[in-house]
Design goal:
By secondary structure, the protein is α+β, with helices and mostly antiparallel strands. It has one domain: Immunoglobulin-like, CATH 2.60.40. The chain has four helices and eleven strands. The strands form two sheets. Strands 7-6-10-11-3-4-5-9-8 form a nine-stranded antiparallel beta sheet. A two-stranded antiparallel sheet has the order 1-2.
Length: 170
């Protein structure tokens, strides 16, 4: 009986640890719920976006393809260019816009090919165009953690490829 209780306690602890470390993120678009990566904060962009914390980046799973979700205080417009560490560029076409709590949220389609590339190579930086007071400006947001988010043992960038592989179960 003592062994059964010990086994049950150990199994419960492993289940609890597994739930803590394999946290799942979801997002609701319309009435549909989709799994997604956690939100990454890329540094740079306009001076306003930088003051407000940078460009927020999330990858959303939709079957074998997905969406790139960008959130910023900038009014992002048009196509977005995602530069990967292997030198490849993914051009994302605009899908829709949502405005929530004074933040602009844009969704961009990602094809199966794009997802495969994103699983193999992390995002290095993202170029986008935003409407500013005097017209349109192009900005670059770099995959770089804030210095307060890193220590000497951690990388200074987000491992987006690993997060996307985990999201797509590969």
């Amino acid at each position: 009986m003592k062994n059964k209780m010990l086994f049950f306690a150990l199994a419960s602890l492993i289940f609890f640890i597994d739930r803590c470390y394999s946290q799942e993120y979801t997002i609701i678009i319309g009435s549909e719920r989709y799994p997604c990566t956690r939100e990454f904060t890329f540094q740079g962009g306009s001076s306003f976006a930088s003051m407000e914390g940078g460009l927020k980046v999330t990858i959303i799973k939709r079957n074998n393809s997905g969406y790139l979700k960008l959130s910023s205080h900038d009014f992002i417009m048009g196509s977005v260019y995602v530069f990967l560490t292997n030198g490849r560029t993914i051009t994302c076409t605009e899908r829709n816009i949502y405005r929530v709590n004074e933040k602009n949220i844009r969704l961009y389609d990602l094809t199966q090919r794009d997802i495969r590339e994103l699983m193999d190579h992390r995002i290095d930086f993202i170029r986008y165009t935003a409407r500013v007071f005097h017209g349109l400006e192009s900005y670059t947001a770099k995959n770089q953690k804030e210095s307060s988010d890193t220590d000497k043992k951690q990388e200074s960038y987000y491992d987006t490829a690993s997060a996307i592989r985990q999201l797509f179960g590969r």
